[in-house]
Each structure stands twice: as C-alpha cells, then as structure tokens.
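Standup notes
- DV: blocked on the single-chain target, sequence here:
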Amino acid sequence: MIRRQPIETKINHERWLVSYADFITLLFAFFVVMYSVSQVNETKYRTLSETLGNAFSSSAKKTNKNRSPDTTEAEVAPLKQIEQQLEQALSGVLATGEVTLNGNQNWVEIVIDANSFFSSGQATPSDEARTVLNKVADIISPFDNAVAVGGHTDDTPINNAQFKNNWELSSARAVTVVNLLAFAGVSPERMSAVGYGEYRPIADNQTPEGRSANRRVVLRVARDRADIPKVIAPNAIPQSETPATPANPEPVVNPGPAEEQPETVEPVRLKNGGLLFTSDPDRARNNR
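- DV (later): unblocked, structure below
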C-alpha cells in the first residue's frame, strides 16, 4: 500500500499586517472626515445665521405688536434710579423741608409734612400737595414697585364733625394720598394705605416742634413688586365641576326600614330515623 505524502503547510508569520493595514485605513478615514468637518464655508454660515436672526426678530416684533398694552408687565425699577429722579423733581420742596427723602436697600421713603399739605384736623390736600404728588406719580407710575402709604399724627386728641380720633384722621390722609396717586396714573393694585394715629412718633410730643414732626404722611416705594394674592371664595364651586341637575328630577322615596325575611325551616333526619325540623340544619347535624 502506497502511503500518501503529507502536505506541508507553511506558517505565515506576517498575517498581522492585514489587521494593521485595516487599522491604518480606518484611522486615515477618520482624520479625513474630521478635517472636512472643520472646514466650514464662512459665507454660507454667515448667510444662514443672518436668515435665522431676521426670522426670529420679525416674529418677535409681530408678537409685540399684537400684544395689548394691558398684558405688558411693567418692570421693577432700581431704588437708586427712583431716588435720583425724585431728588431732581422735588428739589424745591426738599430745600424747604416740606418733604424729606430717605432710602436704604429695601425702599425709598418720602416723608410729607402734614402741616404744609393738610389743614389742621382735616384730610383735604392743598394745591401744593397735589402738585408734589403728581410729580411723584409721574416718576413711579411706569414701574411696578409696591407702594405703601402711612398716615401719622401727634397725640393731641381730636373730635370734630369728620373724625372722632387720630386713627380716623391718619387713615383718611393716607387714603387721600393713595387716591391722588391713583388718579395721576399709579396702578391701584400696587398701593396700600394705613393709619397709625399717634402711636409711631419720631419726636417728643411734649414740645411743639416734636408734635409738628410727628404730623406726617410717609410714602414708601419698595424694591420688589407688589404681591397680589388671588382670593377665591371658600364656598365657590367651579362651573365645570358643578353637578348637573336633571330637568325633571324623580322624587326620592324613603324606603323605610327593611322588612325581616322569615326563616326557612328544613327537615333533618336523625340517626334514630326521626325527623327534626329546624332553621339551622348544620347545627342539628353536628349535635346528633
């Protein structure tokens, strides 16, 4: 028998070159793509950017034109800006001391001398008071800062035909200032009025000068927007949740107490052959 010669297989020690060549090809392709991406056509990019900018700006202008003035929300002005404008507008009364201007990081305070702007024991403002408050309103009306007005008096008792005590007088003067500001264009939703009577003095009521300093109306412009809560009646039911009432409701009949059903009696045969008639046959069987 002739034996077949085995075929010698040559071992290729250079097969790693195939994988290496594939890796180099992929790496080359990667850098080619990265280079092509980095080369942006500046002219086309600038054209696209301008087109998008014009489109968005035109749509924003259309939205602002279609928006009614009532829906435009006013801005909150910085206190420093308001204080500087008030100093310029009220320079005359500030020099005479009829109005004092103070401020800090939370509010700007306008102290109005009630002796100059109101008659003794009265809440009717003078012409000078109207002029000053109109200037104040022109400055603060474009903005949405909260405004609080407080009336103060001295401790001299008062009891005339209009006011029974200093509480009523101080409150009436504060309300008068609020009404004048609202009439001049300040939004009523951002204002509040309160009367303190003689209970928050800034000077000694034992002297005429101290009593004169305590008779004042203080107007404070806050740095924040007025917080206006929405009040909902506690018993109010939304219309969508109101249960529908049928046109012809059927009368409700009281069924009354349920009638007791008579117990069913069943015969049970006993071990001795007899019959037992009972309403609880299981119990009878267990007791046989």
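- Follow-up: Strands lie at 99-103, 107-113, 145-152, 191-195, 216-225, 266-269, 275-278.
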